Amino acid sequence: MIDTMQRTSSRVSGDGLPLPQQLARMDLSRLRAYRENLEFYRGLQWQEPWRRRERRLTFNYAKTVVEKTASYVVSGYSSLVDPLDGSPKELERARRAERALREVHDANNLDQLDFDNEIDCSVLGDAAYKVTWDPQEERVRVSAPDVQGLYAWWPGDDPGRVWRVASRYALSHEEAEALLGGVPTLRQGKEHTIVEVWTEGEFALWLDGTLFQEQANPYGFIPFVVYPNLREPKQFWGVSDLEAVKEPLRELNRALSQLSMILELSGNPIAVLENVTEAQDIAVQPGAVWEVPEKARAYLLDLLQGGGVGLHVEYVNLVLRALHDLTEVPRSAFGENRQALSGVALQMELDPLLKKVQRKRLVRAAAFRKRNEMILRILEQHAGEQFAPLRQGSGQAYRTRVVWG
Fold first, then answer.
1. Which residues contact 24 (CB under 8 A, 6 or more apart)?
2. Dihedral through CA 291, CA 296, CA 299, CA 305, nearest 10?
3. What is the tens place of the pLDDT at every residue in 238-294?
4. How far is CA 16 from CA 8, 21, 329, in A?
5. DSSP annotation string for 155-190
6. Of 18, 47, 213, 259, whose CB has the highest number of CB atoms within 10 Å?
């Protein structure tokens, strides 16, 4: 069944339409969620339409929490290759494979790429790597394509087994000409739409909705690693870190905006006149003299009386507490340590964040191992070295593991 789908994957979809046309109607809810999460991460967090002279403050904890968590997740990891046994040949093979992985890591600046991809994954809910061979520089190239242009197909009963991946992106005419050659000219300001379709056996490239190139897959595997931020059970696509904090962050922005308005009005008092039909030259300033008629009353409105501000501050603190609970990032992760905790006590204080990091690293380690396997397989194809174990009876051709700092 899967083999039959792969043979027809590069040209048409299940309903007979060319694949680029089908992509325009696929995963609409996922792509909409990506856009909404990106806007929220960038600070567009108010839902209600803005009214004139309305004060709206935005405290972008979303960006801070995402970046702080990302720095914990990808800090200090290394890729190791386990030998199949203790023989000298196996030990030497494992060391050569480790050196090859380090060289690819340094050449592609994977420290920065992994951090950027971790932020992207936390915000959107998904991320991806693409591992290919660069014939011009003669080296393995690792990139992080935008998941907003990625589509994946898998058997209905096995979300972990991807049999087709499509990547859609835009290129200027100069870029498309340099990459593909013989590209038709577009109108001024227009861009070419490129769609790559990969299966284990085939590769197809569509240019502006037309099949431009079709050939056998030069790698023998799909060169994409698509992985979730945190996956819901039985689901392929992941969940963004922002889903749990959108409501408390919107409430925090509203409460602090309201408190700011109250404090501003209290600093610029409102004059209240009772039993007065007409008023002029009423100014709140030092030395001001007001003349009011008999039985009239004039006073300044005090918005701070009765401890009202304290109630607002207490409510803001409750919202902040809920925010820290939902993000699993306690105040101590921001450097606040009022009780001077250390050792085991400080570790217990940071335990929610550590557990969150551990859950994320389970997913990241699997993605990095798959990326390492692709790197080694491509190097074998183009460098002529043997990186897989000499005996592959275990069924695991590339025994790599990720060690976290």
1. none
2. 170
3. 999 999 999 999 999 999 998 888 777 666 666 666 666 666 656 656 656 666 666
4. 10, 10, 49
5. -TT-TT---EEEEEEEE-HHHHHHHHSSPPP--TT-
6. 259
